[in-house]
Write a structure and sequence with these properties.
- The complex is a heterotrimer of chains A (226), B (197) and C (225).
- By secondary structure, chain A is mostly helical.
- Chain A is 67% helix and 8% strand.
- Chain C is mainly alpha-helical and 225 residues long.
- Classes of the chains: A mainly alpha (226), B mainly alpha (197), C mainly alpha (225).
- At the B-C interface, helix 2, helix 3, helix 7, helix 8 and helix 9 of B face helix 1, helix 3, helix 6, helix 7 and helix 8 of C.
Chain lengths: 226, 197, 225
């Protein structure tokens, strides 16, 4: 098993002390895509939802105020950058920190809405995000204890995989499932979308999608499946 | 139970944290079954507890060798080649910290938090990127909290009527409190007079 | 007596303590998670999730190296940050549910201790001076605690929005100092001392001002322009 068997040949590394970011074709593709999408979001305006009213010909426009728009755009850009960083990082703990950043920014994007239902599901998602601290950081710490390293390069080159490492990876998997809201934990994230404000709302969806792709690669590297 | 009912329950956001907690608790049980042991070959190892205190080092238990601005301390990093000046922050101490060390052997933990020392080397240099992310997480949380507070829960400047009512109520309650205080004063004075007479 | 300052290999003591420490963390987490699974009220769940965060700190600290000590800090901060944002969302939701009936003046903050009349200036000064000596994240937390004590004992009732924004701006600039320090660490490594002080002071200013502002986040409008 080596780092190159999933993502392709290593194109280069960005060494920042113990944290080494690395690029291969898969990461480069994900990184560039999310950066392009972030730029698109940065220059776009929000949609306005139009609701037909009962019993008359009037219509009700649900739009986003200027202040709220700026707040959301800022958090959406940070979310995009954090996702881009998570795509190329080569350190386990660094990756979990990126995920925590994405989680809190996701809550922030919908925190400014006026609908009680959306606020409620944002709160419930926040509870999950807080609980995810245990499986993410704890899982990384268990992998650190059993292998003595957090770097993906060293983890990929390790000769054997202890049951404890697999337990750490399993914990991380639970954490990733909760934080990115895949089944069966989809309800909170799906309800968070029910508010005007695309395309900023969309980055919530996109970031979890990208995170899942990247985390699958990282978990496969750790447990040496391929 | 029918599968449709389960799906319906899963669609309510209120149930999701509880479900997540239950699943995570089940996964944790695995941790008690598998063999667990600490790998001996760790990064940044630390000496045995109490050993530096017993040896009488002045910044025990955080002495990692080296001399201030003269000789780097010992830092066992993952990629020492990526950090050229590794070990220098480890051995550095600010002048105040150095004075504190020469005065007393009991300030090891305090000095360790001031500029210099192994923790600063890890937090700022070799794993500095983690600290950037960590402080930006704190910043984002603060932006969210203060924005919500300033714009929703606090901003009622334009609701003149509510403000008037509330101020009236506040005045009334403070009047009541003042009356009560006066009343108790009067009682106390009467008691005093009785005792004196 | 000559001691080995930094061993190449983890001492046997840490290895023997790892499994009990890990089990301790897992048991705490298990109890907290079961509590969450059967609990009904939202606010109770929020408090119990903090317990899960503590269990995470135990699991990280069980590794027992200097690296683990450094990793505890990000974990602690992430938990702190998330509980702050989420509780604010909970308050916002509840206020929206209640609607305009919500009282403008919140329940009075009644905490009457003698020390809060006699010594707030002295205590705040000592804490801020000690925090400035510590620098970095720890120092910021200590100095911020000093500011909070001062604010609480003076019964401050909210700040003008401009002031909150201004202090937030200062902490943002301090954060940029730390980013510059981090870049200099790798761009010009021979100036590591400059970078160290940029990082330490930047983090100190940032955390202290944030912690101080947290003490001022009280929902009241008097004195606000």
């Amino acid at each position: 098993m080596s780092l190159t068997s999933i993502g392709g040949d290593l194109l280069g590394t960005i060494p920042l002390g113990d944290i080494v970011l690395y690029l291969n074709p898969l990461h480069l593709f994900l990184f560039v895509t999310i950066i392009i999408f972030t730029i698109l979001i940065a220059i776009s305006r929000t949609e306005t939802q139009v609701e037909a009213m009962f019993g008359s010909l009037e219509e009700n426009k649900v739009s986003v105020g200027m202040k709220e728009f700026k707040h959301r755009r800022f958090l959406a850009i940070i979310c995009g950058l954090a996702t881009a960083g998570a795509m190329i990082t080569g350190d386990l703990f660094n990756f979990t920190l990126f995920m925590a950043l994405i989680g809190i920014v996701n809550i922030g994007i919908v925190s400014a809405v006026k609908q009680i239902d959306v606020l409620d599901s944002a709160y419930q998602y926040g509870l999950i995000a807080m609980m995810c601290g245990l499986p993410l950081f704890g899982g990384a710490a268990i992998i650190l204890a059993s292998t003595g390293t957090l770097s993906l390069f060293t983890l990929a080159a390790a000769p054997t995989v202890a049951p404890m490492t697999i337990f750490g990876a399993l914990m991380m998997l639970v954490g990733i499932a909760g934080e990115s809201g895949i089944a069966p934990f989809f309800a909170t994230k799906a309800e968070m979308f029910r508010t005007p404000g695309s395309p900023f709302i969309l980055i919530i969806h996109l970031s979890s999608l990208f995170i899942i792709v990247r985390s699958v690669e990282i978990l496969l590297i750790i447990i040496h499946v391929i | 139970m029918k599968i449709a009912k389960i799906w319906n329950k899963l669609a309510k956001p209120k149930n999701i944290p509880r479900l997540f907690a239950a699943i995570l608790a089940c996964v944790l049980i695995i941790g008690f079954v598998i063999p667990t042991a600490l790998d001996g070959d760790q990064l940044y190892p630390r000496p045995e507890p109490q050993s530096q205190m017993d040896a009488g080092l002045s910044i025990a238990p955080y002495d990692r060798g080296g001399e201030i601005l003269k000789e780097p301390g010992t830092t066992i990093a993952e990629y020492p080649e990526n950090s050229k000046y590794i070990g220098w922050i480890n051995s550095y101490m600010s002048p105040i910290a150095d004075t504190a060390r020469s005065i007393s052997p009991y300030f090891g933990t305090t000095i360790y938090s001031s500029p210099g020392g192994l923790i600063d080397e890890i937090l700022y240099y070799t794993r500095g990127f983690d600290t950037i992310l960590e402080s930006s997480i704190l910043m984002m949380a603060f932006i969210i909290a203060s924005w919500l507070m300033l714009n929703f829960t606090m901003d009622r400047r334009n609701e003149k009527e509510t403000i008037q009512n509330d101020v009236k109520r506040a005045i009334k309650s403070s009047d009541r409190i003042a009356n009560e205080v006066e009343e108790s004063n009067r009682k106390a004075r009467a008691k005093q007079r009785k005792r004196e007479s | 007596m000559v001691v080995e300052l930094v061993p190449q290999y983890v001492p046997a003591f840490f290895q023997s303590m790892y499994t009990p420490a890990l089990y301790g963390g897992l048991i705490v987490a298990f109890i907290a998670l079961i509590g969450i699974a059967i609990q009904k009220k939202d606010i109770h769940i929020l408090i119990l999730t903090d317990l899960v965060g503590l269990a995470m700190l135990i699991v990280v600290a069980a590794v027992g190296t200097d690296l683990a000590e450094a990793l505890v800090l990000p974990g602690l901060v992430v938990e702190l940050a998330e509980i702050m944002a989420i509780s604010e969302i909970l308050i916002s939701r509840e206020m929206r549910k209640i609607g305009p009936k919500q009282s403008f003046i919140p329940s009075e903050f009644s905490l009457d201790m003698e020390i809060m009349h006699t010594a707030p200036n002295f205590l705040a000064l000592i804490l801020i001076a000690y925090g400035a000596f510590l620098t970095g994240f720890t120092g910021g937390a200590v100095a911020g605690g000093g500011i909070i004590i001062y604010v609480l004992s003076r019964k401050a009732r909210g700040l003008p929005i401009a002031v909150v924004d201004g202090v937030g701006g200062i902490s943002g600039i301090a954060w940029c100092l730390w980013i510059i320090g981090f870049v200099l660490f790798f761009a010009v490594p021979q100036y590591w001392l400059l970078s160290l002080f940029l990082a330490a002071l930047g983090l100190f200013l940032k955390v202290a001002s944030k912690m101080g502002l947290m003490g001022i986040l009280m929902r009241e409008e008097f004195g606000k322009k």
